[in-house]
Amino acid sequence: MSDTGAPHLVLVDGSGFIFRAFHALPPMSSPEGVPVNAVYGFSNMLTRLMREHVGTHLAVIFDAGRITFRNEIYPRYKAHRPEVPEDLRPQFALIREATAAFGVPGIELDGFEADDLIASYAQSICTNGGHCTIVSSDKDLMQLVGPCVEMMDPIKQKPIGPAEVEAKFGVPPDHVIDVQALMGDATDNVPGVPGIGPKTASAFVNEFGSLEAVLDAAPSMKASKRRDALIEHADDARISLKLVTLKNDIPLPVPVNDLAVQEPDMLVLGDWLDRMGFRSIRHRFGLGDGLPLARATAQAAARAAALNNENVAAPDSEPARVPYGPYEIVTRTETLQAWVNEARKAGVVAVDTETDGLDPLRAQMVGFSLTTAPGRACYVPLRHEGTLDAPVPEQIPVAQAIATLEPLFTDASVLKVFQNAKFDLLVLRKAGAGAIAPIDDTMLISYAQSAGEHGQGMDELSKLHLGHTPISYDDVTGTGRKRIPFAQVPLDRAAEYAAEDTDVTLRLWQVLHPTLRTNKALALYEEMERPLVEVLASMEQLGIRVDATELKRLSDTFETQMSVIERELHQLAGREFNVGSPKQLGEILFDEMSLPGGKRGKAGAWGTDSSVLQDLADQGHELPARILAWRQLSKLKSTYTDALLRQMDPGTGRVHTSFQMAVTSTGRLSSNEPNLQNIPVRTQEGAQIRRCFIPAEGKVLLSADYSQIELRLLSAVADVPTLREAFAHGEDIHARTAADVFNIPQEGMDPLTRRRAKAINFGIIYGISAFGLAKQLGVSMGEARAYIDAYFARYPGIRDYMEERKLEAKQHGYVTTPFGRRCFVPGINARNAAQRSYAERQAINAPLQGGAADIIKRAMVRLPHELKRAKLDADMLLQVHDELLFEVGADQAEATAALVKRVMEDAAELSVPLVVETGIGANWAEAH
Question: The 5'-3' exonuclease domain covers which part of the protein (predicted)?
Answer without folding.
Answer: 6-262
